[in-house]
Amino acid sequence: MSRQRSSKRSGSKRSELDHYSLRAKKEGYPARSVYKLEELNSKFRIFNRNSRILDIGAAPGSWTLYCLRKTAKDSLVAGIDLKDLTISKNDARLFFIKGDFFDEKNQSELLAKGPYDAVISDAAPATTGNRTVDAGRSFSLAAGIIGIAGLMLVPGGNLTIKIFQGGDEKELVGMLAEIFETAKIFKPKACRRESFETYIVGLNYKGSDEE
Ligand SMILES: C[S@@+](CC[C@H](N)C(=O)[O-])C[C@H]1O[C@@H](n2cnc3c(N)ncnc32)[C@H](O)[C@@H]1O
């Protein structure tokens, strides 16, 4: 009986995975993660057709490709990742750096292409399997991105960052609330049920006092 229940559970989990993975394959995206961005954007309008977008932690490239498909012919999608993109880079609107976002030289190159209307980050740290350690690494990554986002964003711009839930996500939302008009936390349905990732969203960057 209990075996039946458990196989029913894993069966439905598998079909949920299949739904997003098959759809991604059919639509030409390298990863099912694209549907998290689709949901985030339809809920919060993080970017529109005319937005200039910076995608941090862009590989293999589903979010980048989605942004390229959803923005106008004269838009810009800049991306950075430690790994290379697997999508075609044959689009004049795409600027990609293979490297670490926290490297100052890379930041200067990204800044030179900015500022951006939207900064989106699906960046994830190397995981250890230890939830506390992984959540701590994710917190540091997200806090680092929030610290630099102001440099990259236009006033009125929007920020979305993936984080691993570990109890400190409210602190990150608090950091966002200081520099954005609105700060939210939202877990898209497309996140795997067993995953402890979620997303924090800052809308309407207030701008720096020095400007
Ligand atoms: C979940 S994947 C992103 C998936 C991507 N959004 C997509 O839809 O194809 C997370 C990525 O974050 C990248 N990453 C983690 N730390 C980074 C850093 N400091 N600088 C740049 N990329 C980083 C990893 O290399 C990894 O490719």
Word description of this protein:
- A seven-stranded mixed beta sheet has the order 3-2-1-4-5-7-6, with helices on both faces.
- The protein is globular.
- By secondary structure, the protein is α/β, with parallel strands linked by helices.
- 42% of the residues lie in helices and 24% in strands.
- The N terminus is likely disordered.
- Bound molecules: S-adenosylmethionine.
- The site of S-adenosylmethionine has 21 residues, from helix 3 and strand 2.
- Belongs to the class I-like SAM-binding methyltransferase superfamily. RNA methyltransferase RlmE family.
- It catalyses: uridine(2552) in 23S rRNA + S-adenosyl-L-methionine = 2'-O-methyluridine(2552) in 23S rRNA + S-adenosyl-L-homocysteine + H(+).
- It is found in: Cytoplasm.
Write the layout of secondary structure elements.
Blueprint: H1 2-27, H2 34-44, E1 52-56, H3 62-70, E2 76-81, E3 94-98, H4 104-113, E4 116-121, H5 131-152, E5 153-164, H6 169-179, E6 180-186, E7 197-205
Parallel strand pairs: 1-2, 1-4, 2-3, 4-5
Antiparallel strand pairs: 5-7, 6-7
The protein binds S-adenosylmethionine.
Summarize the structure.
The chain is an alpha/beta fold.
Overall spatial form: globular
The number of distinct helices, counting runs of at least 4 residues, comes to 6
The whole-angstrom Rg is 17 Å
| The CATH homologous superfamily | Vaccinia Virus protein VP39
Identify the CATH architecture.
3-Layer(aba) Sandwich
Report the uncertain regions.
1-11
Based on helices, strands and strand pairing, what is the structural class? alpha/beta
Strand order of the largest sheet: 3-2-1-4-5-7-6
Number of strands: 7
**Strand percentage:** 15-25%
Q: From the structure provided, what is the oligomeric state, counting identical versus distinct chains? A: single chain
Instruction: Kindly give the count of domains.
Output: 1
Mean pLDDT, to the nearest integer, reads: 91
How far apart are the termini? 66 Å
Q: What's the CATH topology label?
A: Rossmann fold
- Following the backbone from N to C, one meets helices and strands in this order, namely HHEHEEHEHEHEE
Q: Give the class-level CATH name.
A: Alpha Beta
The amount of helix comes to 40-55%
